[in-house]
Specification:
The complex is a heterodimer. Chain A is mainly alpha-helical. Chain A has 17 helices and six strands. The chains are: A mainly alpha, B mainly alpha. Chains A and B meet through helix 9, helix 10, helix 14 and helix 17 of A and helix 1, helix 6, helix 7, helix 8 and helix 10 of B.
Chain lengths: 416, 334
């Protein structure tokens, strides 16, 4: 036993898969201790806030200010407000005005602005331009001038008695706040989802729930498969025929279809994560049953089993002591595969809208489903779906690596 | 051909038996659930309806349609009769369109998309797997980790990734639908071209997911075969490597064909979800619409059709297997 485990941990593939999987488990386990937010709390008003560090504007106004005189501050400020479309429009005007196209770089804000300031004159009429277009450029020019102005901004408050605005403070353009002194900062490493929930916290919780679904479904499927496989392989005869008939039947009838039918019939209100897990478990035992049966048949007439029979041991005793230890490796491998396929099955079901009911817990499939319903993929909100895909791929990848590693240990022919 | 005929009849019988059980499951699973399915359906339809006579009318109508007020055996025969006549009832969500009509218009898309894609992915995967097993160093070292990782990206994930890269960012292919939304299905060049363009992303996403798993399976099979005694014997005999690889490939192929038969159900399931990502007008998308619209007759019919398709595909693969496996041909001499 010890020797086997040592051998298993010498397999590079197994160790890689095992470390990835353990890392995921540790993250899922310890993350809630570090960040105690409710994973489904709706914090963002509006959907799909991009990943970033969110600084409270109100608090930063009230924190200590420092004057920093930086040369490129103005350019950066304008560069940030100037959209791609406006940059393109400015370039179009400059080209029409007569500046060679290769001298204009719309990504170089400083150069672009200098060129604009030097050349733009509202009185010059560039050829082929409608009046509305001319007005548009005048507006751009005014707004740029407004941005370039060096005056600060006035903060005013409404006086509760008179209802008149009263100036309370001014902010200069060169004022800075130290981020560590601002009271409220929210780091959203993966932004928010369509409901305005923190994607990272939700993802970790969802990974935990999906893994649980995988474990429950995998255990149920393995137990059923093991039981049926032992029964049909060891007892044989009519029992074998009946069990094999149903095993073959459920091999060809796609389990996906059964899953859909059962989950739909259960109804939205009764579909919790554990129900889904049980349903998945009950529809995916086929492969384990087949594998166990073929192993048991090859073991059934070995000498040590016959010896056990002659010594008068009970069938139960023989199965536990003389059969199970020999098929344990296959059963564990099957369990690992079942877990990963159960996680995938949950995800597919959820995308179809047949996953666990949506309000209480997130699962990886549900997150994917929400992202798809809100068209995150078309809108380019990668943080809503890509981490989910990566997470699913990582889980199945690590489990499959462990499986191939075990396979190579137990089937020497496959070793490199 | 006596041996083969026996094999064929055997497989045909098995097809009939599995079809029969597919019918039973499709019939019985929704009815096994606690509660009255008809009551549940009427509750969904009559949401917000306060008129109790109207509710009763609804209930009566659906109870008659599904025959739930009759004994279970009679219900089953009614169900079989309806299915054989192609009468799947009327869709709830696309009322008053008959379900058969909806299925007819979507099944073609699914068949034309999935089966070529699965077969193509299978062929490429097997070729790559065999190459990896044969070359071992280099190619194998690079290819295997990649295919292991790629095969672990779920079908819908692959679909989304391809969609974002080639549909949204590069804008090479349209992101949704089976043909341009401004076109009416006709046999014009414009329509055919539109169909071809819309076909690419769903097709390649299914192919990409199929390749990885098949390559890994074929590699293990080929490694087994390469270590077999007949290979060593052939080497001692001085038979050319190229010829030996041919033998090995043929022998390793056989379990892969069976593997295809066994996994075609899972693959179709994954591909249905990929269809949904691309809003491809096939069965997967129809199924999604059915689930969204709580459309029981549509869901029941779609799941039945999918099962039938998988069973039929299985049957065809097994028949082909019988033709290429020499052991089944050899059985005729017994």
């Amino acid at each position: 036993m010890k020797n086997t485990i040592q051998q298993v941990f010498h397999s590079r593939k197994f160790v890689t898969g095992f470390s990835i999987f353990m890392a995921l488990l540790l993250i899922v386990f310890f993350y809630p201790f570090l960040i105690k937010d409710d994973p489904l709390a709706i914090i963002g008003q509006g959907n799909f806030f991009p990943p970033g560090i969110y600084v409270n504007v109100y608090d930063s106004l009230h924190s200590t200010t420092y004057i920093l005189n930086l040369d490129d501050a103005a350019v950066k400020r304008i560069g940030n407000t100037l959209g791609d479309q406006e940059r393109q429009d400015i370039k179009d005007w400059l080209v029409a005005y007569g500046i060679p196209e290769d001298q204009i770089d719309i990504d170089n804000t400083k150069q672009l602005l200098t060129q604009w300031e030097e050349n733009y004159d509202p009185n010059i009429s560039v050829t082929d331009m409608t009046f509305a277009r001319q007005r548009y450029y005048e507006r751009i020019d005014t707004s740029l001038k407004g941005l370039l102005s060096t005056e600060g901004m006035i903060i005013a408050k409404t006086n509760p008695q008179t209802g008149v605005l009263e100036q309370t403070d001014t902010i200069e353009q060169s004022e800075y706040a130290d981020i560590s002194e601002v009271a409220n900062i929210k780091v959203l490493p993966l932004g928010t989802d369509n409901f305005g929930r923190d994607v990272l916290t939700e993802l970790v919780k969802a990974t935990g729930v999906s893994l649980q679904i995988g474990f429950i479904a995998g255990t149920i499927a393995t137990l059923i498969g093991l039981f049926l496989g032992l029964l049909s392989g060891y007892v044989g005869g009519l029992m074998d025929d009946i069990i094999m008939f149903f095993t073959n039947l459920f091999t060809v009838i796609p389990s996906f279809v059964l899953l859909i039918l059962i989950s739909f019939s259960i109804g939205q209100d009764n579909r919790g994560a554990s129900t889904i897990a049980v349903v998945i478990g009950f529809t995916s035992w086929v492969w384990t049953a087949r594998a166990v049966r073929s192993q048991v048949i090859s073991l059934r007439n070995r000498d040590h089993v016959n010896l056990s029979k002659l010594s008068g041991h009970s069938t139960f005793h023989i199965i536990i002591n003389d059969i199970l230890p020999y098929i344990a490796s296959y059963v564990i491998m099957a369990l690992i595969l079942q877990i990963s396929s159960a996680i995938l099955a949950e995800a597919s079901l959820s995308i179809l809208g047949l996953g666990p009911r949506t309000t209480e817990i997130p699962t990886l499939g549900l997150m994917m489903n929400w992202a798809m319903i809100y068209q995150a993929q078309i809108l380019g909100k990668w943080w809503a779906y890509f981490p989910v895909i990566v997470m699913i791929a990582l889980i199945t990848f690590s489990l499959n690596l462990m499986n191939t590693g075990l396979d190579q240990v137990f089937n020497p022919a496959l070793r490199d | 051909m006596k041996g083969y005929r026996k094999y064929f009849v055997n497989k045909l019988l098995w097809l009939l038996v599995t079809t029969f059980f597919a019918f039973i499951l499709n019939f019985i699973l929704p009815r096994l659930m606690p509660g009255d399915p008809v009551a549940a359906i009427t509750a969904r339809i009559a949401q917000g309806m306060s008129n109790s006579t109207g509710m009763k009318e609804f209930y009566q109508q659906y109870a008659d349609l599904f025959g739930t007020n009759k004994p279970i055996l009679e219900q089953f025969f009614l169900y079989i009769k309806n299915v054989v006549h192609g009468n799947f009832g009327t869709s709830f969500s696309q009322y008053p369109r008959p379900v058969l009509d909806i299925i007819k218009s979507s099944v073609v898309w699914t068949v034309c998309l999935q089966f070529p894609a699965i077969i193509f992915g299978w062929i490429i995967g097997n070729t790559l797997g065999a190459l990896a097993a044969y070359t071992k160093k280099g190619f194998d070292k690079v290819l295997m980790p990649i295919s292991i990782f790629v095969s672990n990206i779920p079908a819908f994930g692959m679909a989304v990734i391809l969609l974002v890269i080639f549909g949204v960012n590069l804008k090479w292919f349209p992101t949704s639908g089976g043909y341009g939304f401004d076109l009416i299905p006709t046999l014009s060049w414009r329509f055919i071209w539109s169909v071809i363009v819309h076909y690419q992303l769903p097709f390649w996403s299914i192919v990409a997911t199929a390749i990885g798993g098949q390559a890994i399976g074929m590699r293990s099979m080929s490694i087994y075969e390469l270590n077999a005694d007949y290979v060593k014997y052939s080497r001692f005999m001085g038979i050319k490597d190229r010829k030996i690889v041919g033998y090995v490939f043929r022998n390793a192929m056989l379990p892969q064909v069976t593997g295809l038969a066994l996994s075609v159900g899972t693959m179709v399931g994954g591909a249905l979800v990929a269809e949904i990502i691309f809003s491809y007008p096939g069965l997967g998308y129809t199924l999604l619409n059915g689930i969204m619209g709580q459309d029981y007759p549509l869901i029941s019919a779609v799941t039945l059709i999918i099962t039938m398709m998988v069973l039929l595909a299985n049957f065809i693969i097994e028949i082909v297997y019988g033709l290429i496996d020499p052991r089944i041909k050899a059985a005729q001499s017994d």
